[in-house]
From TrEMBL, chain A:
Record's protein name: DUF742 domain-containing protein
Pfam families linked to this entry: DUF742
InterPro entries from the UniProt entry: DUF742
TrEMBL record, chain B:
Organism: Streptomyces griseoruber
Keyword Transferase: yes
Keyword terms, alphabetized: Kinase, Phosphoprotein, Transferase
E.C. number: 2.7.13.3
Descriptive protein name: histidine kinase
């Protein structure tokens, strides 16, 4: 990563979403993986951004051009808080420009009780 | 006998003569006295008149002219009434009275400046503390924003951050009007960052549309960043305040001959002639600023702009009308305040609008769609954009337009470029024609086999 010299950022985070921090879809998590759907962008009004996307939304699309990213990764790349990226990603998902895949849950731990019962059963079989 | 009557007659004659003489003298004296009396009476009435006139003049001075002269120090357009007797003008009395007024005015002016300077110093001290405290609050809020991403909490943090930005702007502007430093040292930053940063400090910033037509990497030298952000914020604030809430305020960033212009157009009511003149005078920053002259509540914005334009050699013009009907404000940043920042190494903030200019040399046609992973079309795009650490890197945007009408959005070619392209085409076709002609004449000369060999080779090369 190229480092930016530490300094007070000029542009506050709320500007990226227009002050909105509640995503339109509740399921976006920190580890949700975002990928482009491959839908083409429709051109907006002249001089405007395509589809009237906010600038930060375009920046997120650009970041995803290099491949899929988790929400936290995209936040780090764009130097935005995770909450803002969630709003942007949910908006892009609503426009069918981005696919969001929920994080893979960690594998369930073995239940020690079950293991104990299996072991007991095996021992009982052996003794028989 | 005769002597006696003679004597008597002589004596009588002398007596009569002297009596006559005496009588005459008496008469004359009485007449003189009467004349003197009359003269004295006339003089006395004149004197009375003069004293009365003088008293009236001084009373007029105290009651009318002195207050008016004192008021005139603050409000130049007020008139000071003249003396009661127009004839006194030019007389020693008149000149003495005028001198009273002049001495009074100069003393009032110096007192006014002194009091105002003291008030400014007090305000400066207070706002500096407030500003520092608000910066600390801003830091704390941003740390919280990074740490917590619960939507409800984030919403609150965003709102608090915005409120804080607005308070910060007020404190900063007040400090600047009172002659303080802008209060924050920044590093070299993109012009669009400074403009968007200024935009973020306002209530109603969502109504601002920024169109960025600058070369990527156009930046401000470090000491100009904060002043430009403040000026843009104040101009935008005026624009937002004086236009209806359902209209947009349009900001354009463009290169001009001597630097960069930030144009701010609103679709509001516009200003009257007097307002415009006053605003232009304030933003020019030529006159010293007095807090008492800013009105109640004090209108600090334009005064702060005036201070900054003077200090940092920036140019602001508010004298023209906007094509949208409101006011057009133009901030000019001359080239000595501009620098370059590598947009790949230090990209502008994610929420700033992309430039409509395309980076000219590399990167010709954009790939037709987003996300069609097409390594043949742009191999350099994916691999080249990865850092040494192998992390993907955000690339600068080259395509605000989609391909089908990219030609329409592409900035118009300069005449020289068009001429060069046409010239190249022409010379190319001419060269091809002459190349085709030469072997043809060679064939006519009789060396046919060689020619066919050549074409065979050419075809083979193409096939291989």
């Amino acid at each position: 990563m190229t480092g930016r010299p530490a300094g007070r950022p000029l542009v506050p985070a709320y500007l990226s979403t227009g002050g909105v921090a509640r995503p339109s879809r509740p399921h976006m998590e920190r580890l949700t993986v975002l990928a482009l759907t491959g839908e083409p962008l429709r051109q907006g009004p002249p001089q405007g951004s395509p589809e009237g996307l906010p600038a930060a939304g375009l920046a997120l699309l650009e970041a995803l051009e290099g491949g899929s990213l988790a929400v936290v990764e995209a936040a780090a790349l764009l130097r935005l808080p995770v909450s803002a990226v969630r709003v942007l990603a949910a908006d892009l998902e609503d426009r069918r420009l981005v696919l969001a895949r929920p994080p893979i849950p960690p594998a369930g731990r073995f239940d020690p009780d079950l293991l104990k019962r299996v072991a007991d059963g095996l021992r009982a079989l052996k003794h028989d | 006998m005769i002597e006696l009557p003679d004597l008597v007659a002589g004596g009588l004659a002398v007596g009569t003569l002297s009596a006559l003489a005496l009588g005459g003298g008496l008469l004359r004296a009485r007449r003189q006295r009467a004349r003197a009396h009359a003269e004295i009476a006339a003089l006395r009435t004149r004197l009375d008149g003069t004293v009365r006139a003088f008293t009236a003049e001084v009373e007029h001075l105290a009651a009318q002219r002195v207050p008016a002269a004192a008021r005139q120090v603050a409000h130049r357009h007020l008139d000071v009434p003249g003396p009661l007797q127009p004839l006194t003008v030019g007389t020693p009395l008149g000149i003495a009275l005028e001198n009273v007024l002049l001495a009074l005015q100069s003393e009032v002016l110096s007192q006014r400046t002194r009091v105002d300077a003291a008030a400014q110093a007090g305000m400066r001290g207070a706002t500096r503390e407030i500003q520092a405290a608000l910066y600390r609050l801003q830091d704390a809020l941003r740390v919280l924003q990074q740490r917590y991403d619960d939507p409800e909490l984030a919403q609150t943090l965003f709102r608090l951050d915005h409120e804080n930005e607005q308070s910060l702007r007020r404190a900063q502007v007040t400090a600047v009007v009172c002659g303080a430093w802008v209060g924050l040292a920044r590093e070299e930053s993109h012009v669009v960052d400074a403009v968007t940063g200024g935009q973020a400090r306002l209530a109603g910033y969502q109504r601002v549309r920024v169109h960025n037509h600058l070369e990527p990497g156009t930046a401000l030298v470090s000491h100009a960043v904060e002043p430009v952000a403040i000026i843009v914020a104040e101009l935008l604030d005026n624009a937002l305040r004086h236009s209806s809430p359902d209209t947009d305020v349009v900001v354009g960033l463009e290169h001009v001959h001597h630097g960069v212009c930030v144009t701010i157009d609103d679709a509001g009511l516009g200003m009257t002639h007097d307002e415009r003149e006053r605003a232009q005078r304030l933003v020019a920053g030529d006159e010293p600023i007095l807090l008492t002259a800013l009105g109640d509540p004090p209108r600090m914005g334009l005064a702060a702009i005036g201070r900054l334009t003077r200090q940092f050699d920036l140019g602001v013009d508010v004298s023209s009308a906007s094509p949208y009907g409101g006011v057009r404000a133009v901030l000019r940043v001359d080239s000595h305040l501009l620098s370059k920042v590598d947009p790949e190494e230090r990209p502008p903030a994610a929420s700033t609008p992309r430039t409509t200019r395309r980076p000219a040399p590399e990167r010709t046609a954009p790939s037709p769609t987003y996300g069609t992973e097409n390594p043949v079309a742009e191999p350099a795009g994916h691999h080249g954009s990865r850092d040494a650490d192998g992390l993907p890197q955000r690339r600068r945007r080259s395509r605000v337009a989609v391909p089908e009408d990219s030609a329409a959005v592409r900035p118009a070619r300069r005449p020289e470029e068009a001429a060069a392209a046409l010239g190249a085409l022409q010379s190319g076709t001419a060269a091809a024609r002459s190349g085709a002609d030469e072997p043809a004449t060679g064939q006519v000369a009789g060396d046919g086999t060689d020619q066919t060999d050549q074409t065979d080779h050419a075809e083979g090369g193409a096939a291989r």
